[in-house]
Design a protein that fits this description.
The protein is an alpha/beta fold. Helix content is about 30%, strand content about 15%. The protein contains 14 helices and 13 strands. The strands form 2 sheets. The protein has a 7-stranded mixed sheet. Strands 2-3-4-1-5-6 form a 6-stranded mixed sheet, covered by helices on one side. Strand 3 and strand 4 form a beta hairpin.
Length: about 425
Amino acid sequence: MIIRKTYPELQENHINPMCEMLKCFHPDRSERIANYNDSKKNITFVNGSRILFRYCDNEKDAERFQGTEVDVLFVDEATHQSEEKFKKLTACVRGVNEFPKRIYCSMNPGGEGHGWVKRLFIDRSYRDNENPDDYLFIQSLVTDNKALMESQPEYIKQLEALPPRLRKMWLEGDWDFYDGQYFEDFRDTPDIKKCMEAGITVEEAKEQGRWTHVIKPFDLNTHERRGWPIMRSYDFGYARPWSCAWWTCDPDGVLYRIMEFYGCTSTPNEGLKWTPDQQFEEIAKIEREHPWLKGKQIHGVADPAIWDASRGDSIADTAIKYGVYFTPGDHERIAGWMQVHYRLQFDHNGYARMYFFENCKAAIRTMPLMMYDEHKVEDLDTSQEDHCCDEIRYLAMSRPITPIREVEQKTILSDPLNMFTKKR
C-alpha cells in the first residue's frame, strides 16, 4: 500500500509512472504486466497481488484503514503525517503469510511529522517499546541523483540561490531547520558556525550558554543565587497534556526554565486525564519538597481560562485549595509570541535572555516542532502540542522586554577635538 497526503499527489508521483512502467494501458492486452482499476485505485497482477494507492490527510482518514491488511507499507513524504496517523497506518502491516512485513518511508525536513521522523531516524532517540534495530536511515542529497546531475547540472545553482533555511533543508539535508517552523530561532545545540567564528568549541559554547538555549542545570542554592526569585507558569490540560514549569531570573533579567511537570502519556499530545485536584496536589508536593523550591514565595501565572467558574468551582479555585496561587496571564497571542522571540534573540556575543535546563524535556522537544498557522499569518498553529509554548508565553508577557537592536558604529571622518573618541 502506497500512502500520500492527497490523491492528486498519488496520481502524479506514483499511479501514472507505475501504470506506464507496467504497461497497464497497452493496446495489446498480452503486453500488460498488470491492470489498473481507477475506481478502486489499485494495480492488480496476474498472481492476485495488488498495489493499493490510498490518501491520508487527517485523523479521520487514518481511521479508515482499520481492518486493512498489507505486507508492505510505503509512506511517501512521511513528514506530512502526524505520529498518531503514522502509527494507525503501520497497524495495517500484518498477516499470517510468510511474506516479510516491511515499512518504507521517504521524507524531507518540514511538515507536521518532522518531530517524530527526526527523533527516530536522525536523533535515534527511542522509547521503551521501540527497537533501534527496526529503524534505518539512508540519506540522499541532490548530488546523489546522478541522472538529474547529468541532465540538469545547473539545478545545484538553483538550490544554492534559495533563502538560507530552504537551502539548508533541500541542498544540505539539515533537519534542524524546516519551512514553516515557528521558533526557528530556538537552538538546542550551539551554532557550529558561530562557535568557529568565536574560536571556541561547541562544548565550550554550551558551558558558556552561547548560541544555544539549552544549558546544563546549575545549583540555585549557592550564596549568589539564593535570592533569585522563583516563578511558575501553567497551562491546564486533561485529555491534552497540562504543562507546569518553574523558572528563575538572574539580576540581569535573564529567565531560566529550571523544572517542569508535564502531563503527557508516551503518545505525543495525549494527556494523562488527571483532575485539577490531582495536578495541584502533586504541584504543591513538588514545591514543598524540592530543594530549589521549598520555602520560596512563588509567583504563578496561568491561562486566564482557568478562572472560568461557569460550571462550578474554577480550576484556579481548586489550585488555591492546595496553596497554589496564580495571576491571570496576558492572553494577547501575537504580542506574547514576540516576547518569546525577543527572549530567544542572541546578542552579538551569543547570549540569550531565556534558557532551558537540560531536564526540561517537554519544552525542548515541542518548541522546535511548532509551525505557523495556515490562516492566521503571524500566529502559531494551535492544533499542535503547544502547551509548553503557551505557558512560556504567559511568563514572557509577565516580564516584557524590548528586542535587541544592533547599534551600527558610526564612521568618524574627522575628530580634531576628540569629541567622539571613546575615552578609556
